Amino acid sequence: MERPHLLMSTAGLAYKILTWGCQMNEDDSIQMANLLEQMGCVEAAEECDADIILLNTCSVREKPEQKVRSKIGEFRALKEAKPGLIVGVCGCMAQREGKALLKHGAPVDLVIGTACIHELPKLIEGALKSKRRVVADRMPEAWENNGGAESARVVCKTGKVGIKAFVPVMYGCNNHCTYCVVPSARGPERSRPVSDVMAEIKQLVAAGCRQVTLVGQNVNSYAGSCGKAADDTATFAELLTMVNDVKSLLRIRFTTSHPKDMSENLIRALEELPKVCEHLHLPIQSGDDEILDRMGRGYTAAHYLDLLERLRTRMPEVAVTTDIMVGFPGETHEQFLNTLELMNEVKYDAAFMFAFNPRPGTPAAKMDCQVEQKVKTLRLIELIAVQNEITLQKNKEELGTVFEVLVEGPSEKDPDMLTGYTRTNKTVNFPGKRSMIGKLAQVTAVKAHPWGFTGELAEGMSD
Ligand code: SAM
Ligand code: SF4
Ligand code: F3S
């Protein structure tokens, strides 16, 4: 890839990136850091030391948006003290709100939507030169398979490659779940070509990465080009098979799967490919068919349960996690109980749980019978309590198991302990030497927690 030309005016400037939202945003922030470092910028230790501050934002619920707005407010004083400071709002809020983010004299110089992140050097140069506020919020196009963000991706340039990395395999979403802003923030679904994905993974592995998580809003519908003909595309199961062959890569994860597109081939890939970890994140959203229908999810609870039964019959050890929402418009108490019942039947290893939050511009925000906030909160509290009990119980049932753990580093809770993840994506903290970081260890689970396990190196494993 062509390097953005070095700008005298940006060399040596300090930058800080603040990130909200999902793995797509986390990955975009890495790409933005790479681009800034190519321009000669260096990461600032604190926001107050920075010359360029970028807020990579999320619109999925109101809370992350509020956090960004209050953060922007904090920069007013900083900008007065440091007039050259550039503040940029990037990502999903930038895409959805565009120049509205500049209203009322907001201390914002740059607005960069999700399709324009790779134009960061040019946009910063423009803001510096013109001393005017710049907005780049065009919507990503369905044809941007090669010409969009992916062709601008820079891998490993900053040398900051850890033992695990997110690798986007697709951008955007073609589904229209009636509650969700993602299609309006990320545009239509675009699968990255197989050659781009494979080249990036090989570069990451050469730089020391040992686990990749393939990410996209609906990876099950991946159709990346793999030949010259337009219809020559690979399925997600085929992509997994190719990634499984990358030498020195130890583990492959993927997220998010959509129950309506989960194919037999993908179940087989999970079962048969040795590097693909035994964990499936399969959002159910609701256990009630009428709610699922009005959410526009395209499956029933019975279809979902059938999928899981097929999977668990062939892979009893597989861990299953989910996303669930309560208080969708019109959700009755009985319909909420259907969700609780499904949860008790499936016994998820873990779940991300949310109260429905009406988002401007989505059909669900305009539906009649919005559920009272108090009711949504009580349902969420009940759901979380039930799931926490299930998670702890499932972890207790696994006490004494020897897990293969990919050691990531010292534990945040206790720096004298190491931390890592099982193949089923459960956290294990255990005593061990730092020389084990980046390697696989066999660890026995000796204490169960809601967040995972405390462990001990298994017999025969020396640290
Ligand atoms: N593409 C994924 C899927 O289809 O499951 C998830 C995308 S979304 C970024 C992550 C989760 O946020 C969703 O699964 C849903 O549970 C939750 N979510 C999305 N919109 C929401 C809303 N308006 N209110 C509350 N939760 C929401
Ligand atoms: Fe949103 Fe639905 Fe797309 Fe997931 S599949 S990103 S919930 S529209
Ligand atoms: Fe949020 Fe955008 Fe991801 S809305 S969840 S950062 S795709």
Give a verbal description of the structure.
Strand 18 and strand 19 form a beta hairpin. It is built from 12 helices and 21 strands. The chain has 4 domains: 14-136, Rossmann fold (3-Layer(aba) Sandwich); 155-277, 2-Layer Sandwich (Transcription Regulator spoIIAA); 301-395, Transcription Regulator spoIIAA (2-Layer Sandwich); 402-457, OB fold (Dihydrolipoamide Acetyltransferase, E2P), CATH 2.40.50.140. The chain is globular, with a radius of gyration of 23 Å. By secondary structure, it is of the alpha/beta class. Bound molecules: S-adenosylmethionine, iron/sulfur cluster (SF4) and FE3-S4 cluster.
Mean pLDDT: 92
Can you tell me the CATH superfamily of the largest domain?
Methylthiotransferase, N-terminal domain
* Overall number of strands: 21
Give the radius of gyration: 23 Å
The biggest beta sheet is recorded as: 6 strands, parallel
Class derived from helix and strand content: alpha/beta
Q: How would you describe the oligomerization state of the chains in this entry?
A: single chain
Q: How much of the polypeptide forms β-strand, as a percent range?
A: 15-25%
Bound molecules: S-adenosylmethionine, iron/sulfur cluster, FE3-S4 cluster
CATH architecture descriptor of the largest domain = 3-Layer(aba) Sandwich
Biggest sheet: strand arrangement: 2-1-3-4-5-6
Low-confidence stretches: 1-8
Question: Helicity level, as a percent range?
Answer: 25-40%
CATH class of the largest domain: Alpha Beta
Question: At the third CATH level, what is the topology name of the largest domain?
Answer: Rossmann fold
* Approximate shape: globular
Quickly count the domains. 4
Distance between the termini: 42 Å
